[in-house]
């Protein structure tokens, strides 16, 4: 099934795929698995937003979900 | 007299503008405060006048650096303290640039300025001399012009630091800033007005002192270890890449980006003013403070038409998360070029960006609600209307009418006259920073010594907590502020907080001959934390009967809408805990 993903530029230094993309995933793929597929280190992730809602790593993705993966905001 | 680094005294330069006299004292008794926020707070406590107006000429203005300043990576800040004309209580502000290096090379650890010059004056402070120079011709000039005139008149390019005020400071706007070397600022709490009240337009400072380090080999080894940590790990990389503007997209995605006076916590145009968009469209270079290899200062360029007939100029200003929030999303500004244009206006006038944005956002809503009129504002303030905000910024700096005179004292005063306190974004009397993340941020900015989000980083707790626990929030906010007191007493940039853990700090101190232990740092943290509270109390500060603005409860944070009762309960818990600790600390003195 297809989902839309956007990965914050922050993750480029870890060799992750970044930017906006449409990808194919298997049924019952959870967020943790998706991070693995995109080569995003779990411990650097601040938030995973699916359809404008924050979700946990065990959240199971559905067809046409829109996913945004981002680190925490930092002081400035 | 020995000025070797690691000495056991604080070398304080006292300048009296009234008598045009200077004095130098070597203060062994201040050594236990190390420098920066610790020494500057202590010098404020000694020199401030309790029942006198913050802008009275007898009030002091203090700038301090620390023992590690400039000689270790990212130890770049100078700390200023003063009685804040904005809140009426403790004033503290930090700035980078070349200032810390220049003070160090001039051979001082701290500078205390009192009195009022008879006519507009700029100071020249070097290792050889203190000069009081005529600034009458500069009075009324903006930040950029003032910098240019002093650069042309005075020697020392590359070594000197030039700090100055604009019209807002001259006109005593209580949220006017002091510009430091063009791209950095003593931003918050109105230090610009303190300069203005002293007829002090600028200070040029430089020195060519040779300050020897005792065990050079050990020092160099430690320096390199820290340098490697700074440059070769990911501890600080994000500050260089997109910089803090990275936050815009992040905060927007979690309902934490204050937008249109916090009527919203996400912005439909966030992607158009995100750090990514600034980088793609406007970023022209990144610069560093002296002694920092990071390059976190992002300079963005925009084109302005200054006359008809294809007359354009290109203008470069530094941008950061807080500026994009306060002068962007909070005002509903939709493009990066427009945000930069508003930043430029704020820069030239010499205003604090956060307070200016929050004041204008309030005024926009107050105008719409009919609390104020077009005759007051002289501009059609409306979210998204850049040119009208540009006009209003000049009006604030010039204090053109009664309305602008009043809002020139900040929202705390504005709502007394015009009402609208329920949508005045104030925390502890200071305008809100750009993180509507939840309880820890709201409590943190309210109780922080300088009412800055950086006092205790509540926004960080809000984001990383799995669930919000009241006791944990209180612990976090108190412990973080104490720990940051160590960093700011050493003038370490807070961006380097992950690099400078306690072990690293002790190593750096030890190699320059300051043989402190971990217990000494804990003692320092407590002393600085409670010294500031003592100052605040003496200046009449209290959070009893404090009321949060309604708006912060109406608009969802990343944790949903905050509950007013809960936040009030947290505040009460905080006060009880800190008061008890304060009593213990006072008894131990």
Automatic annotation (TrEMBL), chain A:
What residues does the Ubiquitin Mut7-C domain cover?
Answer: 6-72
The top of its lineage is: Bacteria, Bacillati, Bacillota, Bacillota incertae sedis, Caldicellulosiruptorales
User: Per its record, how is this protein called by name?
Assistant: Thiamine biosynthesis protein ThiS
Query: Which InterPro entries does the record associate with it?
Result: Beta-grasp_dom_sf, Mopterin_synth/thiamin_S_b, Ub_Mut7C
What is the originating organism of this protein? Answer: Caldicellulosiruptor owensensis
């Amino acid at each position: 099934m297809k989902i839309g993903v956007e990965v914050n530029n922050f993750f480029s230094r870890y060799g992750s795929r970044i930017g906006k993309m449409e990808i194919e995933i298997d049924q019952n793929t959870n967020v943790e698995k998706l991070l693995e597929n995109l080569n995003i280190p779990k411990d650097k992730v601040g938030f995973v937003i699916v359809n404008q809602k924050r979700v946990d790593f065990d959240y199971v993705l559905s067809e046409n979900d829109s996913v945004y993966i981002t680190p925490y905001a930092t002081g400035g | 007299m020995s000025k070797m680094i690691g000495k056991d005294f604080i070398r304080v330069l006292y300048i009296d503008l009234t008598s045009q006299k200077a004095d130098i004292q070597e203060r062994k008794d201040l050594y236990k405060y190390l420098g920066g926020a610790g020494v500057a707070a202590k010098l404020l406590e000694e020199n401030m006048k309790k029942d006198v107006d913050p802008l009275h000429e007898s009030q002091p203005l203090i700038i301090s650096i620390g023992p590690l300043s400039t000689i270790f990576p990212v130890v770049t800040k100078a700390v200023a303290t003063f009685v804040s004309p904005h809140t009426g209580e403790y004033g503290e502000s930090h700035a980078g640039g070349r200032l810390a290096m220049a003070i160090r090379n001039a051979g001082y650890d701290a500078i205390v300025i009192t009195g009022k010059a008879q006519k507009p004056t700029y100071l020249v402070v070097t290792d050889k001399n203190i000069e009081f120079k005529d600034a009458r011709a500069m009075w009324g000039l903006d930040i950029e012009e003032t910098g240019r005139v002093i650069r042309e008149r005075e020697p020392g390019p590359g070594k000197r630091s030039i700090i100055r005020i604009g019209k807002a400071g001259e006109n005593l706007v209580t949220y006017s800033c002091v510009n430091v070397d063009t791209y950095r600022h003593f931003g918050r709490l109105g230090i610009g007005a303190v300069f203005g009240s002293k007829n002090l337009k600028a200070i040029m400072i430089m020195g060519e002192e040779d300050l020897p380090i005792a065990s050079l080999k050990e020092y160099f080894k430690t320096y390199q270890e820290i340098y490697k940590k700074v440059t070769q790990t990911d501890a600080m990389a994000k500050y260089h890449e997109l910089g803090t503007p990275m936050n815009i997209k992040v905060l927007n995605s979690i309902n934490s980006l204050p937008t249109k006076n916090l009527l919203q916590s996400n912005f439909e145009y966030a992607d158009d003013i995100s750090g990514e968009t600034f980088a793609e469209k406007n970023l022209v270079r990144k610069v560093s403070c002296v002694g920092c290899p990071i390059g976190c200062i992002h300079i963005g360029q925009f084109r302005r038409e200054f006359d008809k007939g294809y007359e354009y100029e290109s203008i470069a200003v530094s941008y950061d998360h807080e500026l994009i929030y306060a002068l962007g999303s909070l005002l509903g500004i939709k493009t990066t070029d427009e945000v930069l244009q508003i930043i430029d206006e704020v820069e030239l006038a010499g205003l604090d960006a956060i307070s200016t944005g929050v004041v204008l956002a309030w005024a926009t809503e107050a105008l719409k609600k009919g609390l104020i009129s077009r005759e007051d504002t002289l501009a059609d303030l409306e979210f998204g209307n850049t040119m009208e905000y540009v006009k209003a910024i000049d009006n604030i700096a010039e204090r053109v009418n009664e309305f602008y005179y009043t809002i020139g004292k900040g929202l705390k005063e504005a709502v007394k006259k015009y009402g609208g306190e329920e949508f005045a974004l104030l925390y502890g009397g200071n305008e809100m920073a750009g993180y509507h993340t939840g309880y820890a941020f709201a409590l943190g900015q309210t109780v922080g010594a300088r009412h800055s989000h950086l006092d205790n980083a509540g926004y960080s707790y809000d984001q990383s907590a799995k669930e919000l626990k009241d006791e944990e929030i209180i612990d976090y906010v108190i412990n973080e502020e104490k720990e940051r007191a160590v960093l700011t007493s050493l003038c370490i940039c807070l961006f380097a907080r992950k690099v400078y853990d306690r072990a690293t700090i002790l190593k750096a101190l030890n190699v320059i001959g300051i043989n402190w232990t971990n217990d000494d740092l804990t003692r320092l943290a407590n002393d600085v934390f409670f010294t500031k509270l003592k100052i605040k109390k003496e200046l009449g500060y209290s959070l009893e009967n404090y009321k949060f603005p309604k708006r912060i409860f109406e608009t969802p944070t990343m944790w949903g809408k905050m509950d007013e009762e809960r936040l009030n309960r947290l505040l009460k818990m905080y006060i009880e805990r800190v008061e008890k600790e304060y009593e213990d600390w006072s008894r131990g003195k």
